[in-house]
Structures are given as structure tokens and as C-alpha cells.
Amino acid sequence: MRVVFIGPPGAGKGTQAARIVDRLQIPHISTGDMFRAAVKAGTPLGKEADGYMKSGKLVPDSLTIAMLRERIAEPDAKRGFLLDGFPRTVPQADALDAALRADDMKIDVVLLVEVPDELIVARIVGRRSDPDTGRIYHLTFDPPPPELAGRLVHRKDDTEEACRTRLGAYHSQTAPLVPYYESHGVLRRVDGVGEPADVTTRIMGALGL
Ligand code: AMP
Description:
Layout: E1 2-6, H1 13-24, E2 28-30, H2 31-41, H3 44-55, H4 61-72, E3 81-84, H5 90-102, E4 109-114, H6 117-125, E5 127-129, E6 136-138, H7 160-174, H8 177-183, E7 187-191, H9 196-206
Parallel strand pairs: 1-3, 1-4, 2-3, 4-7
Antiparallel strand pairs: 5-6
Helix pairs in contact: 1-9, 2-3, 4-5, 6-7
């Protein structure tokens, strides 16, 4: 199965994606995670992406598309994948379609995880992740165990200012993918508000699992 997750920053895509790939046994491909790994490793791609990411802007399509195409060509992606954070623009969606079509494949489902803007900033600013397990916590809504406090990471772009830029980028550049995928007949909407476990149940239902 080839699945795409779309939704504003802080919609819970990363948390939910981890649960879904566990169930479906397909790779979780997050372009945000790939860029963060490249920044950490200090690669030329990471150096180029870093400035865009810190300020909450999208990395240019040319770099992002090249990185994603390489990733989905890897053997583990042949039997399916879950894309989290890609595509984020219509040119990215067109490039993805073209790459898959060349191999006689297509996206099966696009899940739109809907969360209203007024909930997003509070969700993002309190977000912390565990670099060892990848588990995402929230200081108020999903507090981490105290013994982990020392190792948790606060993303550089999880500030209020960068969050507002990311939300703006979502509405202007990513939201047009909703009618795009609706017209392809693959879009399914899921309410992303509420307990993470309830959202998982809704997503499983939308995927027919
Ligand atoms: P995320 O972890 O998905 O919130 O992504 C973090 C940041 O990585 C974004 O704010 C962008 O700067 C960059 N990024 C991730 N995915 C993409 C994409 N598909 N297109 C452009 N930039 C991206």
C-alpha cells in the first residue's frame, strides 16, 4: 500500500505515521526527518536545507524532489510506503505521480489529518521528541516520564514564530493538494483532534484496516 499523510504542522502526522507503519510493515518516509538527518550530518544537502527549515520555510522543490525520488527507489519501498510531509506542493505531487507512473504504480490513499489552526501553535511549542526512540511527547498533553527529561529534543523550528511561518506555508503551498487529490479520487479526511489513540482508530478505519 502506498499512503500519503497531509496535514498542517502539529497535526500528529509523525505520531500517527509511526503507528500505521508498524501495523502495515511498510517504511515511514518523512522528508522532514531526512532533512534533519542531513543537517545533523553536515552534508551539502543539509547545509542548503538548514536555513529554510529554521525559519519555517519550505526547502526548494528541486532539492526535495531529488531526495524523495532516490528514497522511494530503494528496495524496501518497492512493496509500499507511507509518505509523511511529502508532497507539500503541487509540483512535488506531480513529480511523485510521474515517478510512480514510470514503474506502473500509484498512490492508493491520501489521508488529510485535519486540525484547526488555533490548536496548532500550542501543540507545536510544547512538542519534544526522544532522539533514541523517535517517540514524540507534549509537555502538557502527553508528558514524558521525568527520567527522559534530560535527553529530549526541542526542534529548532518548533518556536512560535517559525510555527506561524510553517502554518502560512501550509495554507498557501500545501492546501492546494486537497482539491488535487480529491480530483484523483484518493483523498480521505480524518479528524485529528482528540486523544492520539482515537485518531489512530479513525485513520485505521479510513485505511480500511
Ligand atoms: P516536518 O518535519 O515535516 O514538519 O518538516 C520540517 C521542515 O523540513 C519543513 O518546515 C521544511 O522546511 C522541510 N521540509 C520537509 N518536507 C518538505 C517538503 N516536502 N518540501 C519542502 N520542505 C520540506
